[in-house]
Amino acid sequence: MKTEDRLIMAFRNLWRRKSRTILTILSVVIGTISIIMMLSLGLGMQEQQKQMVESFGGLENIEIMTDATSSQKIDQNTANKFKNIKGVRVVIPHKDVYAEIKVKGKDKYNVEAYQGIRVIPNEVFKNIKKEDFDQGTNLSPSDKNSLLLTSQVEVTEEIKLPGQEGYSQENVEDFDFLGSNFYIRLGYKDEEESPKFGLEQNLPVNGGEEDTSDKPNYADIPVKVKGKLSKNSFLTGSYGFINESTYKTLEKEDKKLQSSQLNTDLDSMGNPVKNNSKYIYTGISVVCNDYQSVKNVEQEIKEMGYQTQSNTEMIDNINDATTKIMMILGGIGSIAFIVSAIGIINTMLMSIYERQKEIGVMKVIGASIADIRSMFLLESGFIGFFGGVLGLVISLVLSALFNKLFLASVDPSVMGNTEPTSLFSIPVWLAVAGVSFSALVGVMAGYLPAKRATKLSAIETLRSN
Cα separation of 402 and 77, whole Å? Predict the structure, then answer.
């Protein structure tokens, strides 16, 4: 029997008993929906947790932490050593400056660069490409009083709560970063009190005493945003990045303050460390080519004696937890599949009892056992396949509906600067796997009835009523 004849006969037999076929397909649809929706919920949870980790600083980033008094100084030689490690894309020595970025003339506007300002060498900026920007252009070594902002930096506005004393912070939509004026505030402005920094001391680094009562306790340095980075940039976190020229301006203004906010490195006794260089690196970031390279690169850096910090352990823990959740959810969804498989077996057995004479005639005219077996397996496989396709379509519709309701119910102020991801996620592989598994279950459920049909005696089936 030709394959084409088998397919036509299988369709015809299913259509002759369409009411029973539709009910059986419906059970497969329910099973497919249950398992796809359960697994997509687990994948959606995994995506949300991954996005949360990415907001902390990137999955491919490794932070090497030290201080000014460490025996292992971080300098350009250190950066060169890390560049030679296989799997490293970019090495970023940096100094963190904990200062505020403010919008000029907008006192109620706040720039949410909660991780502060980071000074990085001029050569690092050369690694930033045009496609890494959402707005603006790159910094050059000659750009003074300029900075780049990461994609996570947003501007919020203090909104007075009606009938209450407090304020709420709301994102300013479509804020013009390139056309607005900003300033970096060193120190702290307080009309009633002028607090001191560090260990509540105003002593100079070189010892001795100095009268600082006439010095201001804060300084505002005008700056312009030269560019705003995209989410694809290797510079991550919630930072404003400045070059060496801008840092020199900050140093110059910092010396005029009562308390230095830049040179706050302390030794083991808590005393300020003198800074003779243009600036001391307080840390270094290593960006790997991909997430899979992070573990090997981090291990090699640790063997050099450096302390590292990355998101690999957190991601691994999240993946383990979500895998267990997905197994539980998939197990719950598979129960409906087991029920649908039993329904297919029942339908095919009834079909055999009703078609005994037909099976006998096929054997008499020369149909082989393989032909009879394949006919019933095709019928059960079609039931599983059509049920899987319909179940996938309904799952896509339901997931889109639930995601829309979920996103509408999420409070943007709770999510901060990160956009909420979907509650249900159905990637292509899950869609294909769902339909394929459904068809496979149909074929497997039809195996026992098909085997029973091949064992029927042609003579006995022809004698039966």
Answer: 53
